[in-house]
Specification:
The protein is α/β, with parallel strands linked by helices. It is about 30% helix and about 25% strand. Strand 1 and strand 2 form a beta hairpin. The protein binds adenosine-5'-triphosphate (ATP) and magnesium ion. This is Methionine ABC transporter ATP-binding protein.
């Protein structure tokens, strides 16, 4: 539904006279793919380029290079063709709704008139605008606030108006830049629920920017990590949790805890679906007659599915634990060795795609790449 290829944005600042000023590369070749109907979260530190990305996706900002395709239309091709193309771009943009951190409501207009604003610009009749605005107010749970002014609303209510306004033109795509950052945790949850409901009910594709992992956990199907203008990790949340060394997975489920001393093997284990509710660790302990120390653990629900991570320590070096680790993988768990130099050179094969552990001399399927 949204695809960017090689999206690059360079801001040139302080250019005057003969001075060339200096350049800031906010986006550095971003390839993004958001599937129809999914909620896709982009996370990253301040200055990573998240807002630049979203502003380039709806061409509020003209990319320096690369393409943006939304719902089959190459917006970047429309952008540079003079005034007529400008009109086409405006039309294409009307299928993209945008929600802002600070709501961007007009204080001089009532709630209903704020929602009608984009429809006025699109030239809809008064009657049609009114009907649509009331319908949207109902959808966002503010049917009784039509005649009220923004100043009389709470932050959460203002954001509901912002969302209703973004939906006015029946967009296929909703872009959201830190829509919940100015809200308290409980209001954040209610706004996220609203976005999720809208996503499901209307089949709307949502691309949201956030720096809160809670947002990703609560509503995102997929996520990407942005660093220095690049996407460094990307995938469905389930996939990301399965990638050894994934920084996003670690942020979503931080598990810490130091080993009890030299000689043990410390392993991070990720549980999904079924495996999250089976007594795998006690089975492991009984089957191989080993004592397992649990150094840290986190359990949570992602997209309604239980997922967990645990850091455990097995006695003895990695080489002695290849078989028990293979057992964990056969149980459908993802495992990653923590700070164990030998692991970099030894394979613990994935039972699905490769030979079972212990019966292979293939190069490392489980590497220390990215491990802390
Ligand atoms: N209009 C602009 N002119 C010049 N530089 C800009 C402009 N907008 C952003 N930048 C620079 O581009 C980089 C990326 O900024 P951007 O706003 O996209 O980051 P962000 O990830 O949204 O950060 P935050 O989490 O703080 O909102 C930063 O170095 C920023 O200073
Ligand atoms: Mg930003």
């Amino acid at each position: 539904m949204i695809t960017t290829t090689g999206l690059t944005k360079v801001y040139r600042t302080g250019r005057s006279g003969r001075s060339r000023g200096h350049e800031v590369t906010a986006l550095d070749g971003v390839d993004l793919h958001v599937r129809e109907g999914e909620v896709f979260g982009v996370v990253g530190r301040s200055g990573a380029g998240k807002s630049s990305l979203i502003r380039c996706v709806n061409l509020l900002e003209r990319p320096t290079a690369g393409t943006v395709t939304v719902d089959g239309t190459d917006l970047t091709a429309l952008a540079g063709r003079g005034r007529r193309a400008g009109k086409e771009l405006r039309r294409a943009r009307s299928s993209i709704g945008m929600v802002f951190q600070h709501f961007n409501l007009l204080s001089s207009r009532t709630v209903k008139d704020n929602i009608e604003l984009p429809l006025e610009i699109l030239g809809h009749s008064g009657q049609e605008r009114s009907r649509r605005a009331l319908e949207l107010l109902d959808l966002v749970g503010l049917a009784d606030k039509a005649k009220v002014y923004p100043a009389q609303l709470s932050g959460g209510q203002k954001q509901r108006v912002g969302i209703a306004r973004a939906l006015a033109g029946n967009p296929k795509v909703l872009l959201s830049d830190e829509a919940t950052s100015a809200l308290d945790p409980e209001t954040t949850r209610s706004i996220l629920r609203l976005l999720r409901d809208i996503n499901r009910q209307l089949g709307l594709t949502v691309l949201l920017i956030t720096h809160e992992m809670e947002v990703v956990k609560t509503i995102c199907d997929s996520a990407a990590l942005m660093e220095n203008g690049r996407i460094t990790e990307s995938g469905t949340v389930g996939e990301l949790l399965a990638v050894p060394g994934s920084r996003l997975a670690h942020e979503l489920f931080p598990v810490d805890g130091a080993g009890t001393g030299p000689g043990g093997t410390v392993v991070d284990v990720t549980f999904h679906g079924d495996a999250a509710t089976r007594p795998v660790i006690s089975q492991l302990s009984r089957t191989y007659n080993i004592d397992i120390s649990i150094l840290g653990a986190a359990m949570d629900t992602v997209g309604g599915r239980q997922i967990g991570r645990m850091r455990i320590e097995l006695p003895g070096p990695f080489e002695e634990n290849v078989v028990p680790l293979g057992f964990l993988r056969e149980q459908g768990l993802q495992i990653q060795i923590v700070d164990e130099p030998a692991a970099a050179a030894v394979a613990v094969a994935d039972p699905v795609t490769e030979e079972p552990a212990g019966s292979t001399d293939q190069p490392a399927a489980l590497t220390k790449d990215g491990a802390k």
